[in-house]
Amino acid sequence: MSNLLDELELTEKQIASVTEYLDGYLERQAGGKLLISIPGIGPRTAEAVLAYTDDVERFGGGKEYCAYLGVTPRLDESGQTRRLGHISKQGPSVVRWVLCESSWKVVRYCPAMRQFYRRVMNGQKSRKKIAIVAVARKLLSIMRAMLKTGEMFNEKLVTDNCWGQSPRQAA
Residues 94, 48: contact at Cβ < 8 Å? Predict the structure, then answer.
């Protein structure tokens, strides 16, 4: 029994050490405080996004950024038929996983994102997962815009769909 308690104590110390390291990493990242300003986004999600993004300037636009992280729909074409299917799942699965998990919290704490989630769900409980992936994609677009502009999260801009625009364009 004592060996198990020793193992538990060692594991807890290792977890504390890793958490301290990750918190220090996030503090050194320029966009860390920006991403954590989104209600429901925690430090681990912000770290994962920042770690895999590297330099946000290397992406031409929001679509390229979302495609890089694998949350854009696949395109199935045959003749005149065009169908958007499941997400592409390109890029790091860890980021998609933490984003989808965080999306549930964001929907809970941010009324504008909750409204978007409900609009995509369209009253059909069978569309919950589709809607949460749509929220994750919208979150990525917002995160990209925040990292480019240096603005903190502003719920009004989510409602107005104005991320990445200058205040004059948004008005």
Answer: yes
d(CA 144, CA 95): 14
Spans of all domains in the chain: 31-58+92-166
Q: 78 - beta bridge partners?
A: 81
* Average pLDDT, 10 consecutive residues per value, the chain (171 residues): 89 95 87 91 92 85 85 76 73 88 94 92 90 92 90 80 48 40
Cβ pair 153, 38 in contact under 8 A: yes
Q: Select from 116, 66, 73, 117 the least CA-distant residue to 96.
A: 66
How far is it between the farthest Cα atoms of the chain? Answer: 69
Of 106, 95, 104, whose CA–CA distance to 40 is shortest? 106
Evaluate whether 133 touches 71 at the Cβ level (below 8 Å). Answer: yes
β-bridge mates for residue 76, sequence order:
83
